[in-house]
């Protein structure tokens, strides 16, 4: 099929620090005529007619009213990733444009990063690495201790597909698993991983050695964990966040970590990202922060692109859409 006959897809750019990775662009080119934002802005009149879809990679390009008004033939926005809090679903829907995401590709790698953060924080891996490589280290202190994950209590807040995969992994560590979710899982699903349902989040917070946040960012979950919730946690507990930064009141977290209300925190997400370089969270030694790498694996990025492509093609071809996201 000639390039001109392929449906146009708008992307921010190819390569560089913010563009679509080269190998993903090659994947997209098999199905679409790729149009970068620069090409679109330089020749709006011609390009606006060709663009039928937008591929959103790492929350880019920004989808605003001005862009939607300039794309008369736009049918679908294919988001690479599961979180869509950067998209105004109601506004997009008002233009008759569909939104899709990629929940299947993200579950395993995100569950893996949750386990990695829990283990790294429990055993103080980042600190330990710094001690081992420091030119000032003359000996290893015998009183430098972490805590065990095996047989500890894990509280999962948000038992969707990622939360459930965390529970499957935690079971191999003989952890006691508690969970809080809008909807209770089926009895056989609970039994398969040995998970116990807590109707009240407070009960989970009071009992858990590790609390892992795996919820979508919505008005209901914004600052879900604040001063009150942190004060309910054990002083020996660790808070792990693999959802979205704004799910935690970060000022309250700074206070809780400084005054040892909780033992530690491990975050793959913050608000904003990256944090300002003088942010107090960056000065604490009882926290691990990673740069939002939950799905940053060679395999996951490829699978997410494939899933996004399948969604976009389904919309353009009038077929059932594997993963459509609807406005609330």
TrEMBL record:
<dbReference type="InterPro" id="IPR050223">
    <property type="entry name" value="D-isomer_2-hydroxyacid_DH"/>
</dbReference>
<dbReference type="InterPro" id="IPR029752">
    <property type="entry name" value="D-isomer_DH_CS1"/>
</dbReference>
<dbReference type="GO" id="GO:0005829">
    <property type="term" value="C:cytosol"/>
</dbReference>
<comment type="similarity">
    <text>Belongs to the D-isomer specific 2-hydroxyacid dehydrogenase family.</text>
</comment>
<dbReference type="InterPro" id="IPR036291">
    <property type="entry name" value="NAD(P)-bd_dom_sf"/>
</dbReference>
<dbReference type="GO" id="GO:0016618">
    <property type="term" value="F:hydroxypyruvate reductase [NAD(P)H] activity"/>
</dbReference>
<protein>
    <recommendedName>
        <fullName>Glyoxylate reductase/hydroxypyruvate reductase</fullName>
    </recommendedName>
</protein>
<keyword id="KW-0560">Oxidoreductase</keyword>
<dbReference type="Pfam" id="PF00389">
    <property type="entry name" value="2-Hacid_dh"/>
</dbReference>
<dbReference type="GO" id="GO:0030267">
    <property type="term" value="F:glyoxylate reductase (NADPH) activity"/>
</dbReference>
<dbReference type="GO" id="GO:0051287">
    <property type="term" value="F:NAD binding"/>
</dbReference>
<feature type="domain" description="D-isomer specific 2-hydroxyacid dehydrogenase catalytic">
    <location>
        <begin position="23"/>
        <end position="325"/>
    </location>
</feature>
<dbReference type="InterPro" id="IPR006139">
    <property type="entry name" value="D-isomer_2_OHA_DH_cat_dom"/>
</dbReference>
<dbReference type="Pfam" id="PF02826">
    <property type="entry name" value="2-Hacid_dh_C"/>
</dbReference>
<feature type="domain" description="D-isomer specific 2-hydroxyacid dehydrogenase NAD-binding">
    <location>
        <begin position="115"/>
        <end position="294"/>
    </location>
</feature>
<dbReference type="InterPro" id="IPR006140">
    <property type="entry name" value="D-isomer_DH_NAD-bd"/>
</dbReference>
